[in-house]
């Protein structure tokens, strides 16, 4: 395999566990992903620390640290001697909230994997969740795995394409399709928000604009397909809401790949981004790819696909074996 289609990851896969069944499902999926990319798997558990010391805080911290180590033992029992990526599994216990710790580790890894917990609407509105917070605030690529998702390789990958180039998003989707040996479906929904809907209905140019967008997405897919000839890629342009289109017909055996933009907590909850809504509702794992390069719209000149390399930033961790 040449360098442009290399699917090996050199910075590894990180998965957060807390001993729950949901986190063990995420662990299964992370181990399968590490195998697919010949990557090292690092299993991380965290424990809370009080902002200031006080009576009884040392006991609470020690209890939290012990529970974190217990969660790692449960995870290693689940792996049962497996060596994902043909490498020794690393286990790490770190102080802090799971979302903060994993966000920091995402800077020095290829992928962070986290479980999606079941929270009621009221609890989610007040407290959020580790998966939502991590997907919203990290700069790295995050996979959110719901309970009930298949732990093995996906049978189909569906990518949500926007009007801009988003080379990291396209690279991630095609790389996963090669590594997993499954087809890729590129989906771009027209009229995916109230403002776009109103603009498209305003005049006779609506149909031509939709055609321009559809052609641009198809051309982009053709360029990436030429770079990844082993991938069977199809494009669809359903009308209406992007979230509904992305979720339509999904099964636990699928994988959804969407772009993400880091934003503040309040902004994220008010805007309800497509990626955030999809990861809260999809029955399958959702890969959220944050882009770091300047975007181009469909009216800009076409550019060759960018490299799939990601920026590496150091992160110090305490490793326990």
TrEMBL record:
Protein name: Universal stress protein
Residue ranges of domain UspA in the record: 10-146, 169-290
InterPro entries: Rossmann-like_a/b/a_fold, Universal_stress_UspA, UspA
Source species: Promicromonospora citrea
Region of interest called Disordered, as start-end residue ranges on this chain: 296-321
Family assignment from sequence similarity: Belongs to the universal stress protein A family.
Regions crossing the membrane: none
């Amino acid at each position: 395999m040449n360098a442009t289609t290399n699917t090996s990851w050199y910075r590894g896969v990180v998965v957060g566990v807390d001993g729950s069944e949901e986190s063990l499902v995420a662990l299964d999926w992370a181990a399968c992903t590490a195998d697919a990319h010949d990557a090292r798997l690092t299993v991380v558990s965290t424990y809370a620390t009080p902002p200031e010391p006080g009576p009884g805080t040392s006991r609470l911290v020690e209890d939290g640290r012990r529970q974190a180590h217990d969660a790692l033992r449960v995870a290693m029992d689940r792996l049962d001697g497996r060596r994902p990526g043909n490498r020794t599994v690393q286990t790490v216990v770190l102080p802090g909230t799971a979302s903060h710790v994993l966000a920091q580790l995402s800077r020095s890894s290829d992928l962070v994997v986290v479980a999606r917990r079941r929270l009621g609407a009221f609890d989610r509105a007040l407290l959020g969740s580790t998966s939502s917070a991590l997907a919203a605030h990290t700069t790295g690529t995050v996979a959110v795995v719901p309970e009930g998702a298949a732990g093995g390789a996906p049978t189909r990958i569906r990518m949500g394409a926007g009007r801009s180039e988003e080379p990291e998003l396209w690279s991630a989707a095609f790389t996963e399709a090669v590594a997993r040996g499954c087809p890729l479906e590129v989906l771009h929904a027209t009229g995916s928000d109230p403002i776009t809907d109103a603009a498209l209905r305003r005049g006779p140019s609506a149909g031509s604009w939709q055609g321009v967008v559809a052609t641009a997405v198809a051309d982009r897919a053709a360029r990436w397909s030429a770079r990844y000839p082993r991938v069977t890629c199809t494009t669809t342009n359903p009308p209406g809401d992007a979230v509904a289109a992305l979720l339509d017909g999904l099964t636990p055996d699928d994988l959804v790949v969407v772009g993400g933009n880091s934003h503040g907590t309040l902004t994220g909850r008010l805007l309800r981004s497509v990626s955030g809504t999809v990861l809260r509702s999809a029955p399958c794992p959702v890969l959220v790819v944050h882009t770091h390069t300047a975007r181009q719209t469909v009216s800009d000149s076409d550019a060759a696909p960018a490299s799939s390399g990601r920026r590496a930033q150091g992160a110090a961790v305490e490793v326990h074996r």
